[in-house]
């Protein structure tokens, strides 16, 4: 192995996008997010809703993973998962999180912090039955984040469920449902030339949003 194995300091890119200013961003972060999200959907519709979800347990140990945003409005940003998964257990212990979107082609990043609450069982059931049947069966078969001896065992569970629910509606498991992150802070980041990036934060102050430009 060479002395510089794993050294990637030579990998660089230049950011060439136009900037953002206090005069060009919306006063409401939900409006600003919607504008950027709509553009991202036009550029990469297959990946625009991918977001990093960062949680932490009660000891403060963080964990992060990619999940998919399923819907959002002024009440928050929602996704669905197994409540008994690692992220579900951590949110039970510490119901605060951050989600982050990175849209490579646009050189844009959005971070959103806030508290997290569960969606209703009706919302979970409604979305569960909008999913493809394969995804429904996988959610029932998999005890997310728990060890399993082999993939064969998991696939066998799915086959058994296919037979059990043939021509029947697959019930939504009680351990499966949705979460909503209710924002208290947004950060919008726009890549700029020579690393002089544009960064603006929106912090909730009572019922209004305080906007600040941050140094890159």
TrEMBL record:
Keywords from the UniProt entry: Flavoprotein, FMN, Oxidoreductase, Pyridoxine biosynthesis
A GO BP entry: pyridoxine biosynthetic process
Pfam family, one: PNP_phzG_C
Catalytic activity, EC: 1.4.3.5
Cofactor section: FMN
GO MF annotations in UniProt: FMN binding; pyridoxamine phosphate oxidase activity
Stored InterPro entries: Pyridox_Oxase, Pyridox_Oxase_CS, Pyridox_Oxase_N, Pyridoxamine_oxidase_dimer_C, Split_barrel_FMN-bd
Residue span, Pyridoxamine 5'-phosphate oxidase N-terminal domain: 47-164
Family that this chain belongs to: Belongs to the pyridoxamine 5'-phosphate oxidase family.
Function of the protein: Catalyzes the oxidation of either pyridoxine 5'-phosphate (PNP) or pyridoxamine 5'-phosphate (PMP) into pyridoxal 5'-phosphate (PLP).
Quaternary structure and interacting proteins, as annotated: Homodimer.
Protein name per Swiss-Prot or TrEMBL: Pyridoxine/pyridoxamine 5'-phosphate oxidase
Taxonomic lineage of the native organism: Bacteria, Pseudomonadati, Pseudomonadota, Gammaproteobacteria, Oceanospirillales
């Amino acid at each position: 192995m060479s002395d510089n194995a794993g050294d990637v300091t030579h990998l660089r890119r230049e950011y060439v996008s136009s900037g953002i200013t206090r005069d060009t961003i919306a006063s409401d972060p939900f409006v600003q997010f919607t504008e950027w999200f709509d553009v991202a959907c036009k550029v990469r519709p297959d990946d625009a809703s991918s977001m990093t979800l960062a949680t932490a347990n009660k000891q403060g140990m963080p964990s992060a993973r990619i999940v998919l945003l399923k819907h959002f409005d002024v009440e928050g940003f929602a996704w669905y998962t197994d409540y008994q998964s690692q992220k579900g257990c951590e949110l039970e212990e510490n119901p605060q999180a951050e989600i982050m979107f990175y849209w490579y082609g646009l050189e844009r990043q959005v971070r959103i912090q806030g508290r997290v609450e569960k969606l209703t069982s009706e919302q979970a059931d409604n979305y569960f039955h909008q999913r493809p049947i394969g995804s429904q069966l996988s959610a029932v078969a998999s005890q997310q984040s728990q060890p399993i001896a082999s993939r064969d065992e998991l696939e066998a569970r799915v086959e058994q469920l296919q037979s059990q629910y043939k021509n029947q509606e697959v019930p939504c498991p009680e351990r499966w449902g949705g979460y909503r992150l209710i924002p208290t802070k947004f950060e919008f980041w726009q890549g700029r030339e020579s690393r002089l990036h544009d960064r603006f934060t929106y912090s909730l102050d009572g019922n209004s949003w305080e906007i600040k430009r941050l140094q890159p």
